[in-house]
Automatic annotation (TrEMBL):
Keyword Transmembrane: no
Ranges of residues in domain Helicase ATP-binding: 290-500
Name of the protein: P-loop containing nucleoside triphosphate hydrolase protein
Protein location: Nucleus
Length: 1025
């Protein structure tokens, strides 16, 4: 007897289906030909074990002929072979190369002679060749990587494969550009002059093939999604034909020309990829940096991490450079004189210098690179002489862009070296460096500007010296976290971009900071709360011209959901005894407790909460020199050499640089010595903490489901402890802290994102900036400090554009002790930031009375954990269902802010705010000018509305608009969905990337004297500024 079984997926009688290899297609001509083939293929002996595929063939043939004809079998699953995939990818690459040669090369040839002459006349030929070599290497590496990732995927059809290959277009085009530039710069003789190819006349309309485009949100990410036509129109990429209008009146020509000024556009390479919130950011930067005329001032771009602050800054730089080099004086004269020379200084953390370099390469075409000038870098991995040479080249005749780290800038300005060595610069060298860095830049950009939030730090003092010599300079501060601890930090950054804009520090503290702070605690009085809300409104109105804020809500549709859990755990017996001994010992002396001691003690206790073994090990490593410090009045002293009385090495074995023995009392050390002796034999108890146990369970269940995990800690000693555990348990992991070379970090990140390791141990301070770790969707926060924005930055390494999975964050908190009070303090600061920066009225949770840190341990009540089941079924549910860890977790809370419906101001309170502003004491000339400027903007806005409402503006409106001088550029800064007056065949009002006749000087600032009756040639421009 024969038994037959067949996969239903192989029963395919669709017309045109691919037949199995080696099968005569004629066998499929009859209705049952395919069944005959399958009968022969799947006939087996009785004693053979059959796979289970659903229905057997006996069931199929037992059906009636009518029933057989009614069966609709599934198609055969076919896949392209590896050879077919590689061949298709190669054909796509060659096609994109040919596309570049046809569409781009003729224009490039017309630019070759100018590029060759410029590179030699300015003396940057060698630099440009080095730059292009680096571009070629980077682009070739990227292309190889993308091709490999595409080839490793299984493709069912060639069409799907070709659609995915479309992401190679930009990289191939950029690589061909780089190779061509390299060949031009290496020519020994001047290339011949080639005429610029004529612009092909074409109407501005949407073609069928332009209904959707594929884009990539990052260089390291493959994206197969599409953007709808509506989205493209909102970004100002595609125009539409409009009915022609009569446009012969001279007055209307002047109206569109905005009193003789030409329109400013974004470069086409940028306008096709920019997002709506980035358009708003660029317009804000343009308004504050360019349209303010020759005033030396700046602004704060406070977009949260991941929204493209770097890209927006580069867009501004390229737009200024294009306009400044325009042949049309109507365009060129809009740029302040000091910005017409490209000499930009960018100060950022050392870990972001590479990111800036890559972003500049990504967003600037070869012609834009020439306009911006060479990018110089004073990198930490370069020698001291190479850094000075880069600064000299940039500050001298070359100009361009200089990238420098905070640390190097600080040391050069103050002429200080590390480890108390002699000053690195001679007096003459120091004078030159100060002149180059402080006086020569026309535009200064500080990335991660919250680094200068404390005006007493060396870096804040260094950046405060810009422009003291009288040079005109514009300033831009970039930060995603403008407020970390208190309102004075916000003041410091605004005061840097525009000194005295908010008055003096003392005035600001009295009028704003103190009143706002005291009303935002959960236990503030109703009077304090309402008064705080009113002053918050007044403060928001004051800073609005100088700060542009955007949070993740602007890209919420591009982000996966994020859930943050606060998991509260109790103390173990060892932790409880050690904590009580610490409190008793430190409070047993006399004198006042200093705040710097509180901070130091908190760091020690953090080690205790993470694992007692770390705490005791660090105490053992101390020697007498670690305790000695300059005596402070009122500080408890009485210090010893170490916990076991033995002398130690001059430096600790491991540990955080900021952790010292200063302020630790002899009585406390004696208590800890006795306690350590009691528990020393029970090593498991010293290693034990409920944080470690819960962490191990989280890692265990994450490994089950294949999720990667980031573990953040402020303590390097904690990372050491976890690393030793992972080595012992055989876990695959990577580690990043302050000692990880900057040049190696990106390679480590790429390795992790590619899935070679499951766990990444990261120092919160060192790894919270500049890393894209979207390979992980689980984040564990081991400890807290006083700045909540450090943790927000750390979480942002995973929760960002490009993340493919929902993100889960686990904050592990030791309840009933100092860490609870630290978290309460950070919660208040986070609430303050959300209220002040994001202007959201949220329910207050932090309690004022918990600001007393050194209190005895309190019992942590057991809460009901069942309501949290189902919120994280793959990991947290399993942790809660585990008998060992469930009894350790005391409570779980979701870290989220809810709107406070009582926070809206009443009409009476709004009236009071208006009166407060009117009566606000104006004692400085800057404030009068600001008031006058605000009135001008308001009047201009009203005039614009009147212009939009009437097709033909009245004489009065035109007269009003003509009186605002350089401010009349503002109509060019409309949002994408706002209407503007349009001549003839301008595009839809929703599209700022409209099409203009290129021979009408009143529209685009062309040469005067052109005949308006000439034939119009249509040409798409960039996004209208």
């Amino acid at each position: 007897m024969l038994t037959t079984v067949a996969p239903l997926t192989e029963i395919n009688n669709h017309q045109g289906a691919r037949h199995p290899t080696g099968t005569d297609p004629s066998a499929f001509n009859s209705d049952f030909g395919e069944f005959s083939y399958l009968l022969d293929k799947y006939t087996v002996e009785d004693d053979e074990v059959l796979p289970v595929y659903g229905e057997s063939f006996d069931d199929l043939v037992s059906c009636s002929p009518e029933a057989e004809h009614e069966i609709e079998p599934e198609p055969i699953e076919t896949h392209l072979t590896i050879e077919e995939v590689e061949e298709t990818i190669e054909e796509a690459v060659q096609g994109y190369k040919e596309k570049w040669r046809v569409t781009k090369l003729p224009l490039r040839k017309s630019m070759a002679r100018g590029m060759w002459i410029t590179s030699r006349s300015v003396g940057i030929q060698r630099c440009l060749i080095t730059d292009t070599d680096r571009d070629i290497e980077r682009l070739d590496h990227r292309l190889t990587k993308y091709r490999k990732e595409i080839a490793e995927h299984t493709w069912e059809s060639q069409k799907a494969l070709l659609d995915q290959c479309s992401i190679l277009d930009v990289t191939v085009s950029d690589l061909e550009d780089a190779l061509w530039r390299h060949s031009v710069y290496n020519l020994e003789t001047e290339p011949p002059e080639v005429a610029r190819p004529a612009t092909r006349p074409r109407p501005a309309k949407v073609h069928d093939h332009e209904d959707s485009v594929s884009v990539s949100s990052g260089e390291e990410e493959l994206v197969g999604g599409n953007i709808s036509l509506q989205d493209i129109e909102e970004l100002g990429v595609i125009g539409e034909e409009q009915e022609d209008e009569e446009w012969d009146e001279e007055e209307k020509d002047k109206e569109v020309a905005v009193n003789g000024e030409g329109y400013i556009y974004l470069h086409n390479s940028i306008s096709s990829r920019i997002k709506p919130h980035q358009i708003d950011g660029v317009r804000f930067l343009w308004r504050e940096i360019v349209t303010t005329g020759n005033e030396s001032q700046g602004c704060l771009l406070a977009h949260t991490m991941g929204l493209g602050k770097t890209m927006q800054t580069i867009t501004l730089l390229t737009t200024i450079a294009e306009a400044a080099n325009s042949r049309d004086p109507k365009i060129r004269n809009q740029i302040p004189i000091h910005l017409r020379t490209s000499r930009t200084l960018i100060i950022c953390p050392s870990s972001l210098i590479t990111n800036w370099t890559e972003e500049l390469d990504k967003w600037t075409t070869p012609e834009l690179k020439l306009l911006l000038g060479f990018t110089h870098t004073a990198r930490p991995d370069r020698s001291f002489r190479e850094r000075l040479q880069a600064i000299e080249d940039w500050g001298g005749e070359q100009g361009g862009i200089l990238l420098i780290s905070f640390d190097i800038f600080r040391r050069l300005i103050h002429n200080k070296s590390l480890r108390k060595k002699p000053p690195p610069l001679t007096e003459a060298q120091h004078d030159n460096v100060k002149m180059w860095l402080l006086e020569s830049p026309s535009l200064i950009v500080i990335d991660e500007a919250h680094k200068i939030k404390n005006d007493t730090t060396e870096i804040a003092k260094a950046v405060a010296r810009f422009g003291l010599g009288g040079s005109k300079q514009s300033r831009i501060a970039l930060t995603g976290t403008p407020l970390s601890n208190n309102l004075l930090e916000y003041f410091q950054m605004i005061n840097w971009v525009h000194p005295k804009f908010l008055g003096t520090k003392e005035e600001f503290g009295t009028m704003y900071a103190n009143i706002i702070n005291e009303g935002l605690w959960a236990d503030s009085t109703p009077y304090q709360y309402r008064r705080s809300l009113k002053w918050l409104r007044l403060f928001g109105n004051e800073i609005a011209p100088k700060v542009h804020r955007a949070d993740l809500s602007v890209i919420k549709d591009e982000l996966k959901p994020k859930t943050e859990f606060l998991i509260t755990l109790p103390l173990t017996d060892v932790q409880l005894q050690a904590y009580q001994a610490f409190i008793d010992g430190q409070l047993s002396g006399t004198g006042a407790i200093k705040m710097h001691n509180i901070f130091n003690w908190s760091k020690w206790l953090t080690l205790l909460w993470n694992a007692p073994a770390i705490f005791f090990s660090k105490l053992e490593s101390l020697e007498e020199s670690n305790f000695k410090a300059k005596p402070r009045r009122g500080t408890r002293t009485g210090l010893i050499t170490g916990i076991d009385g033995e002398r130690r090495s001059a430096s600790p074995r491991n540990g955080d640089d900021s952790l010292s023995g200063e302020g630790l009392s002899k009585h406390m050390i004696n208590e800890q010595r006795q306690l350590y002796g009691q528990w020393k034999k029970d090593r498991s108890a010293l290693d034990l903490s409920y944080k470690i146990q819960v962490l191990e369970k989280i890692l265990h269940y994450c490994k089950w489901i294949g999720d990667q995990v980031l573990i953040f800690s402020h303590s390097v000693l904690t990372l050491d402890h976890l690393e030793a555990m992972f080595k012992r348990d055989g876990r695959s992991y990577q580690r990043l802290d302050g000692k990880t070379p900057v040049g190696d970090r990106q390679d480590h990140v790429d390795t992790f994102n590619e899935g070679y390791t499951n766990i990444y141990l990261i120092s919160t301070k060192a790894g919270g900036l500049g890393l894209n770790l979207i390979g992980a969707n689980r984040v564990v926060v081991m400890d807290f400090e006083y700045n909540p924005q450090d943790i927000e930055q750390a979480i942002g390494r995973s929760y960002r554009i490009g993340q493919k999975k929902p993100v889960f964050v686990y904050h592990l908190l030791t309840g009933g002790a100092t860490e609870s009070r630290m978290f309460n303090n950070s919660l208040f600061k986070k609430h303050l930031a959300v209220t002040v920066v994001d202007k959201k009225n949220v329910i207050r949770k932090a309690v004022m009375v918990l600001r007393d840190y050194l209190n005895p341990a309190e019992p942590v009540p057991q809460d009901d954990l069942d309501p949290y089941l189902g919120k994280d079924p793959d990991v947290l549910d399993k942790v809660l269902n585990n008998d060992q860890t469930k009894c350790q977790i005391r409570s779980i809370d979701l870290i989220e802010f809810h709107e406070d419906l009582t926070a809206n101001l009443t009409p009476e309170e709004l009236k009071e705010v208006a009166e407060m502003k009117v009566n606000f004491r104006r004692t400085r000339e800057e404030e009068h000018l600001r008031d006058q400027r605000e009135r001008l903007w308001k009047q201009l806005s009203l005039n614009m509305q009147a212009t939009h409402a009437a097709p033909c503006p009245s004489e009065d409106v035109r007269r009003d608009r003509s009186s605002f001088g350089h401010l009349t550029l503002f109509p060019d800064l409309l949002r994408p969905n706002e209407k503007i007056p349009r001549p003839r065949s301008f595009s839809s009002a929703a599209n700022p990337n409209f099409v203009v006749p290129n021979n009408r000087h009143v529209y685009r600032g062309g040469p005067e004297g052109q005949d308006d009756k000439d034939e119009e040639t249509w040409e798409p421009r960039g996004t209208l500024m």
